[in-house]
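With this grant's support, we have paired protein sequences with C-alpha cells. One protein thus recorded is set out beneath this paragraph:

_____
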Amino acid sequence: MSTGQADNATTWIAFEPHDTVHVRDGRQFSSRDSNTALAETVIPRPSTIAGAAASAYGGDLTAVRGPILGKQNPDGRWCPYFPVPSDIVVVEGKETTAQERAYYRLVKGSAVDGTDLAHVPGAPESLLELPPQVTAKAEPLQGWISSEGLSSYLNGTLFQDSTVASDYLETMLAGEEPLVPEHRIGIALQDRRIRSGYLYHATHLRPRDGWVFLAEVVPHPERPKPEHTTVTLGGISRLAEVAELPAGSVAWPSRPASFPGGRMLLYVATPALWRDGWRPPLPPEATLVAAAVGSPLPVATASPKRGFFRTRTLRWAVPPGSVYLLHFPDEETAAAVASSWHGRALAPSADWIHTHEGDHPPTDAPPLHTAGFGIVLTGVWT
C-alpha cells in the first residue's frame, strides 16, 4: 500500500518561536455567559506548520512531515520528542514502599465478542488489557518520550514481559513540560473598535528554552531552499525563526529490521485524519488485532489562498501516541509494508467532508497527508 508520497530528497527544518504560540483548536468561540468567553490554545497542528513552511519556501512544498517537538543536545544533534505511546500505563506506589511508580505495557487480551466493540464496523479482534500481574489501578502515562526511547519501544527492547525498569524509562522521558501555558485577558474588537464589556480569557503556550518545533520537508523542485528566515506561526501575528538543519542532525526513530510472525505495530506520530475516523487505511492483507487510541483532537483547516470560507473545516483527528497492533500473513509482507510506511503519512486522508447535498470538494486543494497529518512509525509487538 502506498503512502502517496515520493521519496524525494528531504531536509529537516526547525521553528523557534519569538514569543508565545497561539493556535486555536477551531471550535466555536462563544461566551459561557453574556460577557465572558474562553479560548483554548493547542500545540500547532500539521496544517499550521505546513503553512509556515510554505511561507518560508515561497510556496507549497511537495510534503511536510510534522510537527514534532525537539531539543538540541550538547553535541549539536537534535533530539525529537514524541507523545508517550497510549499502551504504556503507570501504577502509583504506596508512600511506604521504596518503589513509587511502576510502568507497564498493555497486552493483547480477550476477544471483543460480547463487548460494545463487537458491533463497531472495522473493530479490532481483541482488547488491550493490563498484564496479569497488575492488580492496582493504572493510568495512561502522559508526557513526552525521546527518539531513543521510542526507538527502543518500537524495536521491542524497552519492555521485558510487559514491564520496564522505572529509572530506565524515566531517563527517556522529558523531564519538563516543553510548552508552558500562559493565561491572558483580552477584549473583543468589532470594526477595529473595542466591544464594551466583552472580555475573553485566552491561553498561550510558551516553549521552554531550547525547545523548538521540527518538521521533515520535501521542497518543491523549483524552491529547494527557504527564501525567508522569519515567518508567522499561528494566530495574532506571532513570529518564529525557521532554519534548515544540517544533514544527519535529526532523524525519525529507527524501525525493526524484522517482524516475527508478521506482527507489526503502528504508532501515530502526528494527528491523523482518516476516512474511517479512528481506523487507519489498511491493505486487505492486514488484520487489525488491537488498538489503544486516545481522545480525538479537534483540528481546524482552511486555506486563505483557495478561499477561507470555501475551505474551512473542523474535523476530529486520531491523536498522536495512538497505537495499533496489526498482523500480516508473513514476516516478509510486514517488513515490506513497514519499509514504505515508516516516517511517512498513511494515505489516503479524509481531505474534504460533504456537509450539504451537491457540495463538491475543491479540486485545487492539496491532500492533507502532504501537510503532515497521519505520519506513522512502525515497530513490533508480542
